[in-house]
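Ticket #317: bound-state structure for S-adenosylmethionine.
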Amino acid sequence: MASSQQQAFARYLAAKRTVDDRALNAHVWQRFGSAVRRMAADRSAPVRMLELGAGIGTMIERLLTADLLHNSEYFAIDSSAVNIDVAAERLGQRAAAGGRFAAVAPLGPGSGPAYVIDLAPAGTCTIRLSAADAFDYLESEAADVDVLIAHAFLDLVDVPRILESISQVLAPDALLYFTINFDGATILEPKIDPALDELILQQYHATMDRRIVDGVRSGDSRTGRHLYHALFDAGYEVLAAGSSDWVVGPTRGGYPDDEAFFLHFIVDTISGALVDDPALDRAAFEKWITERHRQIDQHRLVFIAHQLDYLARPRTQ
Ligand SMILES: C[S@@+](CC[C@H](N)C(=O)[O-])C[C@H]1O[C@@H](n2cnc3c(N)ncnc32)[C@H](O)[C@@H]1O
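RESOLUTION: The complex was predicted; output attached.
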């Protein structure tokens, strides 16, 4: 049974879908889409795609909608079993709706739910979902990956380490599509107290830089800008890059879709990250958090986060 925290996170990921759809860099997305279509057309074997930190599967939904999964085998992994269950449920619902996305499940033996999605007349797509740690999966299960996707994920891990692990599993001419990589700027408008606003956001970013998972430094508040050279150093060539900022603000008096929830979740995340920060006056910080929630309820808060997207491939000498 999922905890209320896990359920809230899954709802946050669902709410993030529309925010990400607007944010994804259009140039990088188009280059990615053309390259995937070429890859699928040029071969008889399915294109093997692997997504790390796939959450509740919204990238799969996006790629299905964009007709980018023809003739493909898609492996989506996430360390949270709850997220993988939600992904399976969402895909199942989509399948149950029938039409082009008629699905057959379960599919053969495997470590998680699997679906064959009929994308007639263009072929089929097989989707396998697994609850697994990305590093473990890359070490033991992945091979011959043609397309590696990581969306809103790389800024949570040690980038040089994961790029090294990824390089062990790629097929020649593979594509890397790395999107929504946070890059050190969070903007909240209107200001409450400029000095306090700045201190809180600076301290919040510092928590990303200090994050340790399993004894290893995991995360970088400037992953976006650092990724360019990290990719080069790991033997990759950047084919396209561009910003993919989240911009969430009220339109016609309210926030679209479930984006008010998305904003409340972001404010709660800042609150949780800094709950014990000795640099902050407790009462002033709590008042600030309450005021940010109030701004959302009053449809006044505008939230911007700077991020970058990349398309890359292994460099040939
Ligand atoms: C910010 S969320 C993004 C999820 C999804 N890509 C999206 O944008 O909706 C990051 C995801 O990475 C997963 N995650 C974190 N560390 C992981 C790891 N070491 N291996 C696999 N998944 C991981 C989390 O469970 C979470 O679902």
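RESOLUTION NOTES: The first strand starts at residue 47 and ends at 52.
TICKET STATUS: resolved
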